[in-house]
Amino acid sequence: MERRIIHIDMDAFYAQVEQRDNPEYRGRPIIVGGKSESRGVVATASYEARKFGVHSAMPTKQAYKLCPDGIYVRPRFDTYKAVSKKIMDIFLSYTEIVEPLSLDEAYLDITHLVSRERSAQSIALDIQRDIFDVTKLTSSSGISYNRYLAKIASGMNKPAGTTVIHYDNVQDILFGLDIGDFPGVGRVTEEKMKSLDIHTGKDLYEWEEKALVQHFGKKGTSLHQKARGIGTSELKVERIRKSIGKETTFHYDINDDDEILKVIEELSAKVGDKLELQQYAGKVVTVKMKTSDYATHSRQMMANNPIFTEAEIYHYAYSLYHELKDPDVPIRLIGVTVSQLSDRTYRNLTIYDFM
Ligand code: DCP
Ligand code: MG
To answer: Could you give all domains of the chain from N- to C-terminal order, each with its CATH number?
Structure first.
């Protein structure tokens, strides 16, 4: 199944947070890291500081020589973590299939949200706009049909960029890429590549798999594939949501059918909205109630087909309520849940022939 993967990465993350919180830092070279007089290293540098050649992992002492007029600040990890949490919540409001890679970046599988009316690129822009609205920070996104291409794409138009790699442009982009910019090529591999005269994706493309395996072992196979746009689109998700439910606790025990059914209708609508947002459908509807004596009862029903509208959910919840409810016993809590979730059909995806 052809997937749509977005990679989102915050721009100069720690430095941008510092510039957000200290207006006098804006437009200035900011270096976040250890003290310059000690053995500290640079965590990150604002784009203004990068012009001087300062970058992550550089000894602060060296940064200070390159950029003596920079503003050197210590990291505030608690603040970065709080921002990260907000970003992750935004991702999860779009899809459950999120794989965070660090505080400031994650992969999202948004295949099920894409339709003729809604391109993957417009979804990426929506997410970036939400991030900015909530945090006042810019991010960059990359969109493609597998993980590593999405990651390459997000780095191509920083800051505040959105880049799509598809079958029509993938080979051009990979040919022009510096070998060190391929995900999975670290410092050591990069040096070794260069000693073999492999400097770009085009150079890499020209090597046979066998020869790459001879020099790089198992990694050789993956490099051979990466030169050709081939890679996995499977995200490592910790927990895929199994159900979507809403419940209400009443301020007092209640026994009026009309009143309770009105609440069930509202709960059905909320569950329907959530299913709509994430483009899920579910096969099982559960109604749960807590009676005035604190006993909990629940009953479920399997639908013939996956359902997702408020009317469908309410239809099942209505029957379940009547099966469960003892007319003589008031209740204090009512809940409606839809489970056995699946993505709705993959609609209107353009399937390109591979190369
Ligand atoms: N970081 C760090 N040490 C490193 C690399 C990164 O402490 N060697 C921290 C600081 C960064 C954050 O992680 O702000 C995110 O790392 P990125 O590689 O995404 O770099 P930035 O977000 O800073 O910049 P870019 O705009 O290039 O993504
Ligand atoms: Mg970043």
So the answer is: 1-166 (3.30.70.270), 169-228 (1.10.150.20), 243-343 (3.30.1490.100)
